[in-house]
Structure formats: C-alpha cells, structure tokens
Design a protein that fits this description.
Layout: E1 3-4, E2 17-19, E3 22-24, E4 28-30, H1 39-48, E5 52-53, E6 58-59, H2 60-64, H3 68-73, E7 84-88, H4 92-104, E8 110-115, H5 120-123, H6 135-150, E9 156-161, E10 163-165, E11 168-169, H7 171-181, E12 185-189, H8 203-212, E13 218-221, H9 227-237, E14 241-244, H10 254-262, E15 268-269, H11 273-291, H12 294-308, H13 316-322, H14 328-335, H15 376-381
Parallel strand pairs: 4-5, 4-14, 6-7, 7-8, 8-9, 9-12, 12-13, 13-14
Antiparallel strand pairs: 1-15, 2-3, 10-11
Helix pairs in contact: 1-10, 1-11, 4-6, 6-7, 9-10, 11-12, 11-14
C-alpha cells in the first residue's frame, strides 16, 4: 500500500471515546450497514486503523426467535476487542428480550439501537426514523433496553436522524429522552428521513445536539468521505467522535487515514491499482471464511467491486466480468488482467459512493403526524414494522 506523508499537522485535541467501561482510543465508529459490515469487512477495517466496528443491524424479533441469519450477524471474531451489535425494533417487550439475550448469553460488549432507517417499508409502519416522533413509544423502548443492558454494565447507545422532515424534527427531544434514560452516547446522522441520502448532511444540527447534551458523548454522522472531513466535523460541531458509513465502502483503509488524522499525522493511504486488487482478493477470501460457502461469498463481493475501483482505469468489459465472478479462481484471473502499476487517481477515487437516492415524502402510517402519541390503531399495527431491513 502506497503511503503519502507530509510534515505533521497539529494533533486534534480529542480524548478517547468513553462508553461505559469501554474506551475507544480512536473515536471513530464503523456504522452498521446491511450486507457490508460482516466480520470479513470489519476485520479489513481493523487491520488499517483503530476504532469500534459495529456488526450489521439485526432485528430484535429475529434475534429472539434465534433465526440462523440473526445468529450469524451477531457472531464476532475471537480477536474483536469490542463485540458491537446494533438492534432494530418497534416493540419494547421484544427489544427488551433481545437485549436480555445478548447480555445473559454474553454475546455483546456494546449495543446500539437503530432509529435512523429511512426505508419506506419501515417508516410506513412507524419504524426507523419515523419512530422517535411517537415520544411514548420511543421512551419505552430506550428505557427498557437501557434497563436490560445495565444488568451487566453493557453500554447502550442510539443512532438516529434529525427527524421525519424539516417540519417534524425529533432529534433534540429524542436526545434528551435517551440521555435521561441512561444511554452511553447518542449518534446523529444530519439528515431527515425525507432526504434519504441526498443533499448534504446538516452538521449544524449535530452541533446543536452537542450543545444540548453536554453531559454525554455525542457522535456525528453524515458526509465523512475522508479523514479531513472527520477532522472538520469535530472542529465545527464539537462532537466526541464520528460515525463512518458509506465513506468506507470499497475503502477499508479509510480507517488508517482517520487514525492518522486524529493523531496529527498527514499520512494517507494512496493505493495503486495492484494494491486495490490485492485488497479485493483478500476481502473475498475473508468472505469465504465468513460464510463457509465460496459461491455465496463471491456473490456478496460483487456489490463491492464498483466501490473498490471507483476512479481507477478499468475497462467496462473487465468490470462487468469481475462483478459476475463465481469463484476465487475466476476473481484472481480477472484481477490479474489489471494494470497493477496504474497509480492512485486522486480525487476521482474519493468522495460519495453508492446511490444517494432523491428526496421523497416519507411513507408513514395513517395520521402518524397528527399526534406525538400512538393512537389505538397505530399501537395495534406498529409491530408489523419489525422487518429484517437496515439503513440509517
């Protein structure tokens, strides 16, 4: 891996992140992403830099029912120092049961609750980023989860969005409720559900939440595509750490850049095409270990191909072939056709990855916005929101 360096920059005066008994020396969190932050990808990220690496989100219902997929999601490598799990749920009883299972069976060292999912099939039933609008439901879920987690001193955090749209913001109320319930930290993605991933994240909202909650850690999320973005967010908002999601897709070495930046170093990873190819192959090998099924692992790696090679000179026909490989042998053969000495393309390899989507009117249950309390019909229907989906 090519490493570029210039004279050291002033060290960012940011102490280690404290989450209950856990100390995260580099205050960087890998955001849970469905189909991405499995143990293979978490290992790749850990090899480059420090931080805390959260597993893919798992639904409380699936975990309580012990579905094979939910148990795979919460599995961690033996050398993962902090076993971090994110739960999604809409029913306080089910969420409480899931947290109790994780605690009593010693399956997690840190638990996060997802209130940030903007996916329509979740919000239309009152889940994800729609849920904090209902203060009673949100309060009950967080209080129940904290109570269960505290039985073994497991820190519990929440991740949320600004609100449903600009006219229905929830983040300040939700932050205070979570703080009062005893959460270890609050993370805010500076977008509303209506924005999905479009436009720019509102870092000023993150700063307002930081100011409103001076007594617990506040973490910022949204539009961190580089180490420089992370440093700028900390300086502009005063957050205690950052949460990185899409910015590390196809770039696990971003965590090395982040650690260097927080330590005051300008060292950055600038891989040539051959080094990226080796990273892709290692990722695929780790996926085979994770799934125990070469065919499934290679199907999973396909979505990463475009992210890894963003900005690099790779022919369209070869890109297509790499995105259709079905074995490690096929992948190795395709990667060997690349010009290994092709240099790092600079800004073309950086910036946003994946689909941002476009602003849209959030899908919500009937009469959801008429009151901040659940009505009888909504109480009866909301359990249907507990789907095996992710986002944030």
């Amino acid at each position: 891996m090519t490493v570029a360096a210039t004279p050291p920059a002033p060290k960012l005066e940011l102490p280690p992140l404290k989450l209950g008994p856990i100390t995260v020396d580099t205050p960087v969190i890998l955001a849970p992403m469905a189909g991405i932050t499995n143990s293979a990808f978490r290992r790749l990220c850990r090899e480059y830099g420090g931080g805390m690496y959260v597993a893919e989100m798992v639904t409380s219902r699936a975990l309580v029912e012990r579905t094979p997929e939910s148990l795979r999601i919460i599995s961690h490598d033996d050398d993962e120092k902090v076993r971090s799990v994110q739960l999604y749920g809409v029913d306080p009883v089910t969420v409480g049961a899931a947290v109790r299972m994780l605690v009593e069976e010693d399956r997690a060292d840190h638990i996060d609750l997802n209130f940030g999912c903007p996916v329509p099939k979740v919000t239309r039933r009152g889940g994800g980023s729609a849920l904090p609008w209902k203060i009673d439901l949100f309060t009950s879920i967080v209080q129940t989860a904290v109570r269960e987690a505290s039985k073994d001193n497991i820190p519990l955090t929440i991740k949320m969005r600004k609100g449903i749209d600009d006219d229905h913001l929830t983040y300040l109320d939700a932050g205070r409720i979570a703080r009062d319930a005893g959460v270890a930290a609050v993370a805010l993605h500076g977008r509303t559900a209506a924005q999905f991933y479009s436009g720019q994240a509102d870092w000023s909202a993150i700063a307002r939440l930081r100011e409103a909650l001076p007594d617990i850690p506040v973490l910022g999320n949204g539009d961190i595509w580089s180490a420089e973005d992370a440093v700028r967010m900390v300086r502009e908002t005063g957050v205690d750490g950052v949460v990185v999601g899409r910015g590390c897709q196809g770039r696990p070495w971003l965590f090395g850049d982040l650690q260097a930046a927080f330590e005051g170093s300008d060292t950055r990873f600038r891989p040539n095409l051959g080094q990226v190819a080796e990273g892709v192959y290692r990722h695929a090998e780790l996926m085979v270990e994770t799934f125990g099924d070469e065919g499934k692992a290679l199907r999973e790696i396909r979505k990463h191909i475009a992210w890894y090679f963003k900005g690099y000179v790779v022919g369209g026909e070869l890109r297509t072939r790499m995105a259709l490989v079905s074995s490690l042998e096929d992948l190795r053969r395709a990667l060997d056709e690349l010009d290994a000495e092709s240099p790092y393309p600079g800004s073309d390899a950086e910036g946003p990855r994946g689909r941002a989507g476009s602003p849209k009117r959030p899908a919500l249950p009937k009469d959801w916005l008429e009151s901040r309390a659940l009505n009888t019909e909504q109480s009866a229907d909301i359990s249907a929101a507990e789907l095996d989906v992710s986002g944030g």
